[in-house]
Each structure stands twice: as structure tokens, then as C-alpha cells.
Amino acid sequence: MTSTKSSIQERIAALDWAEMARELDSFGCTVVKSALTGEECRALAAMYKRDDIYRSTIVMARHGFGRGEYKYWSYPLPEIVADLRTALYPPLAAVANRWNQSMKMDVSYPDTHEEYLDRCHAAGQTRPTPLLLSYNEGDWNALHQDVYGENVFPIQVAFLLSEPGKDFTGGEFVLTEQRPRMQSRAEVVTLRQGDGVAFAVSHRPVQGSKGNYRVNLRHGVSRLRSGHRNTMGIIFHDGK
């Protein structure tokens, strides 16, 4: 893989994080545009065929999660995966800290991902959570939340590694938001190959007439109409 740590950091740093933070505040999600090249996407997707770099494989239908498969990487993570975690964490931690303050939650996040992982590992959450997902025609992912222990970083990122319209059709990313005493709201995010979607893992604050209140979110993937779709999930907390 030709990507270097500096190039990933430069791409992430060059994004309009002020606008992306506003979208996260307003909708619970934002697109991380062109974070990966086509070559990087193809190289990451090709890793799915290997078995020696993963700690577990999940067949969704066996657990009622939908249809399709995903694999959790083992440590050490591939360099590009570790670099994305490191580069994405600081701007997202700034949003996460502001959210927790708004919701009066007494949890704050350190400046670097390394410091946050130290907190997870001290609490017994030592299993890496970044994952690679594989969908074929007819596969789908049920609405869910990726919570793996007491320490939960409230934002995660999913990257589309396949090319829509060429490699697959259907398979849209779906985010639902359950609001108190109101009907749920759905958000469908259209991605290009190499784009990511950053989104709330489980909760986010919403400004109401009497101050901020907390809404509950779940995410999933609609049915793949044709072809094959690979995605990569970057989760910042490790699991037990």
C-alpha cells in the first residue's frame, strides 16, 4: 500500500472541520470526503481474503444482525487503519467533548487517540474494534449501535471501499434518530468510493425550546441490489 502516515494526516487536516462539525451537530453525521484513494480502497478490500490479520469473523445471519460478513482486525493494525484512527480522533474528540458538556455528561476525551486507548485498556477494553465488512447481493445490516464496553467514544467513521454504480447498487448507509415524544427521523448518506461517513454511535445532543436534550441513534445498511460492497469501520474505543 502506497499511503504514508503524513499523507493521511494531511488529507484529514485539510478537510473543512468547522462545516463538518456543524453537520454533526445538525444531523448526527457528516461526509469525510475523498479520505482514501482508489488504490488504497482496493488494497484494503483485498485484505478481506486474508485470515491471519483478524481476531474474529462474524456471519451476520447467525446472530440476527442481517446478512453479510465482517472481520475485526488484530493488533497490530494495518498502518493505514492505525493512521486514520490517529488522524481522525482529535477533531472528532473536540465535537465529542462539546456534546458531552451539552448533555451534562461528566466524561471528557484526551487530546490524542493514544491517550484514549490507554484509558480503554486500563478498563479491560483491549480488543481492537476496526473492522472490514463484505456484502453480496441481497445482504444488509440491521440497525444497531457499536458499543463494546464502558468506555464508548461517541463518534465513529465508516469508509466506502467499493465504487457505487460499478461494483454494486443499493447498499445505502442509513442512520435513524429516535427523538423523545416524536417520530423517528431517517438520514440516508450517499458516498463515493474513498469517502467516509462520521456519525454518532448512540447519542447526541439536540437543541430544544427548553435547552438541549438527548436523542438515540442507530445505523445500518440497506439491501444490496446487485454486486459486491466492501466497507471499513473505524471505531475509536476498543472492546472487551
Account of the protein in words:
The structure is a single chain. Helices cover 28% and strands 34% of the residues. With 240 residues, it is an alpha+beta fold. It has a single domain (5-234), classed as q2cbj1_9rhob like domain (Jelly Rolls, Sandwich). Strands 1, 2, 4, 5, 7, 8, 11 and 14 form an 8-stranded antiparallel beta sheet that branches. Strands 3, 6, 9, 10, 12 and 13 form a 6-stranded antiparallel beta sheet that branches. A hairpin with a 2-residue loop joins strand 12 (203-208) and strand 13 (211-221). Helix 1 (5-13) packs parallel to helix 5 and helix 2 (17-27) packs across helix 5. The longest helix has 24 residues, at 79-102. It is globular, with a radius of gyration of 17 Å. The model has no long low-confidence stretch (mean pLDDT 94).
Give a topology summary.
Layout: H1 5-13, H2 17-27, E1 29-32, H3 38-46, E2 54-59, H4 60-63, E3 66-67, E4 69-73, H5 79-102, H6 113-122, E5 131-136, E6 140-144, E7 155-160, E8 168-170, E9 173-178, E10 185-189, E11 196-200, E12 203-208, E13 211-221, E14 224-234
Antiparallel strand pairs: 1-11, 2-4, 3-6, 4-5, 5-14, 6-13, 7-11, 7-14, 8-14, 9-10, 9-13, 12-13
SSE sequence, one letter per element: HHEHEHEEHHEEEEEEEEEE
**% residues in beta strands:** 25-35%
**Tell me, what's the shape?**
globular
Please state the oligomeric state of the protein chains shown.
single chain
* CATH structural fold name: Jelly Rolls
User: Treating each run of at least 4 consecutive H or I residues as one helix, how many helices?
Assistant: 6
- Helix fraction? 25-40%
CATH architecture assignment:
Sandwich
Main sheet summary: 8 strands, antiparallel
Number of strands: 14
Instruction: Output the CATH homologous superfamily.
Output: q2cbj1_9rhob like domain
Distance between the termini: 30 Å
User: pLDDT under 50 segments (min length 5)?
Assistant: none
Rg on CA atoms, Å: 17 Å
Q: Count the domains.
A: 1
**Structural class by secondary-structure content:** alpha+beta
CATH level-1 class: Mainly Beta
Q: Give the mean pLDDT.
A: 94
